[in-house]
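User: Just a sanity check before I run the rest of the batch. Below are the structure tokens for the first item. I only need the designed sequence back.
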């Protein structure tokens, strides 16, 4: 027989060993569902465990029980679907905050509808108060020509009015606004912008791209409290749609300071990848700070720059190699000189910053690729991740250059389904072959991070997800998809809004997939978007959005 002391010591050792191998109890266990991890080694599981805001286990519902403690919260999915928190790789959080505060013109079906909404607001505010709105799109009206100010000026004569087009690249103003700003027939076009004019040279009230500032600069700035309330409302809105991260394009220093203030107070339930404005003062400020990642508990990344090469297709500001098919007098607008863009790109490389440049037309895209190439020859980098934002119309010769230069085309598939009704009028049929060309780009070996460009498009990220693999609108038109040879697969569409978007923002080690060690950012959906028919995807409801293992939005209580 073994001595009692030896048996006691052996039992103690076994007990201690078992205790050492047992995992620490999780804060949250999510179980009994279909969890899409976007991890190629384990694409889906039915459970995961979370501790201190990060994932500690993904696997089976049986094995996850090892992480259950007395204080562990168990989220029983009851067969529901989970995907990683969705990442909008190109959006405007401040613009969304403003749009929630101003006159909403999205979906207006005619110019009369626009005027009615503005007149209703005018009745509620004192004379002389600026009325600001956003969202009109003349391509959705019976008369698709640009409007002129006369009807608006007659209906609202005593308030200066400034109405931004849906794409943010044109504005319609009334006579009172032009009077305040001193805009007359004698006003000259600015580089990178133009005034639409009547036959006699008088301004019609439509300002394109950089000409918008002639009136926009006269609008009184929002107060600090208004901006703060707008930011909080915008964050709550994106959380409601299952978004846990946003790449915020073109943010000024004041807005960044506001985000930092909210993050320090624990009131920033979002992970924002900030693209700073490219003026010399902002560049100098943030170059001194250097690239910063995961500030304030993983809330802010400040390590990229946003520049503009051209305008938008809908307002004929996108820079084309050949004239517009429906307006041969113009080839669009260049909003930054190539030398300036190359200088910013070179300085970005020297200081460890990413450069993300808006380019929609084929001339704009070529100019950006040329500037990037020259900057990379001056300052070689193996992991710069420079981006072109939108990359909507690309000449066939330039499609392979993205992969050759390591440039990421950050695209918004919802733009394709918004533009497909009239893009052929702008471009002609031959140029459409290089338009919204996701598959052609993917076939060269690049990734295509996805987004919405809200408030240009609606916030709902499933619109872009659906568009990416169907190339159909919300009514599932056209049958078979528009230029269907450029579709993504459904798996690629999910990656485009998760891990590819994370990689495009140097965030792939923290978010973008559900793997141990990463933040527990995820979304609970009421149906399986990876398996339901395409026509049902947009009926999906977000039941809950989790950031760091804690709910930031819940549609209903989930035990």
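Assistant: Here's the designed sequence for the first item:
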């Amino acid at each position: 027989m073994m001595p009692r002391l030896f048996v006691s010591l052996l039992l103690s050792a076994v007990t201690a060993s078992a205790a050492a191998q047992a995992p620490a109890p999780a804060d949250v266990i999510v179980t009994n569902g279909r969890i899409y991890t976007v991890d190629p080694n384990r694409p889906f599981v039915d459970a995961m465990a979370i501790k201190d805001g990060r994932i500690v286990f993904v696997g089976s519902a049986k094995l996850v029980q090892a992480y259950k403690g007395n204080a562990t919260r168990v989220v029983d999915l009851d067969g529901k679907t989970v995907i990683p928190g969705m990442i909008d790789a190109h959006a405007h959080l401040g613009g969304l905050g403003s749009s929630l505060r101003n006159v909403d013109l999205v979906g207006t079906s005619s110019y009369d509808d626009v005027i009615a909404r503005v007149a209703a607001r005018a009745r509620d505010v004192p004379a002389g108060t600026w009325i600001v709105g956003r969202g009109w799109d003349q391509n959705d009206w019976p008369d698709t020509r640009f409007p002129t100010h006369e009807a608006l000026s007659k209906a609202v004569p005593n308030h200066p009015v400034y109405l931004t087009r849906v794409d943010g690249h044109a504005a319609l103003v009334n006579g009172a606004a032009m009077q305040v700003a001193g805009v007359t027939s004698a006003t000259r076009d600015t580089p990178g912008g133009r005034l639409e004019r009547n036959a006699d040279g008088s301004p019609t009230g439509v300002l394109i791209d950089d000409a918008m500032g002639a009136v926009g600069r006269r609008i009184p700035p929002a107060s600090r409290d208004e901006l703060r309330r707008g930011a909080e409302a915008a964050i709550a809105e994106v959380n409601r749609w299952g978004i846990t991260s946003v790449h915020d394009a073109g943010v000024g220093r004041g807005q960044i300071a506001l985000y930092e203030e909210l993050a320090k107070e624990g009131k920033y339930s979002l992970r924002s990848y900030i693209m700073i404005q490219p003026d010399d003062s902002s560049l100098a400020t943030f170059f001194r700070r250097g690239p910063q990642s995961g500030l304030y508990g993983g809330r802010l990344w400040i390590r990229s720059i946003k520049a503009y090469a051209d305008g938008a297709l809908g307002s004929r500001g996108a820079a084309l190699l050949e004239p517009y098919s429906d307006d041969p007098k113009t080839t669009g607008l260049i909003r930054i000189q190539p030398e300036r863009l190359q200088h910013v790109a070179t300085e970005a490389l020297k200081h460890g910053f990413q450069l993300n440049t808006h380019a929609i037309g084929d001339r704009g895209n070529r100019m950006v690729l040329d500037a990037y190439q020259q900057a990379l020859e001056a300052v070689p980098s193996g992991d710069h991740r420079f981006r072109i934002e939108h990359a909507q119309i690309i000449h066939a010769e330039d499609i392979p250059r993205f992969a050759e230069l390591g440039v990421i085309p950050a695209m918004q598939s919802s733009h394709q389904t918004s533009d497909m009704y009239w893009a052929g009028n702008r471009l002609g049929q031959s140029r459409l072959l290089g338009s919204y060309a996701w598959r052609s780009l993917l076939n060269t070996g690049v990734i295509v991070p996805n987004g919405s460009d809200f408030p240009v498009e609606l916030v709902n990220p499933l619109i872009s997800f659906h568009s990416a693999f169907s190339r159909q609108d919300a009514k599932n038109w056209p049958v078979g998809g528009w230029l269907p040879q450029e579709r993504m697969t459904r798996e690629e569409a999910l990656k485009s809004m998760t891990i590819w978007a994370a990689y495009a923002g140097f965030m792939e080690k923290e978010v973008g997939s559900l793997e141990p060690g990463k933040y527990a950012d995820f979304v609970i959906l009421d149906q399986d978007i990876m398996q339901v028919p395409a026509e049902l995807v947009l009926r999906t409801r977000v039941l809950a959005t989790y950031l760091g293992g804690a709910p930031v939005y819940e549609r209903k209580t989930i035990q």
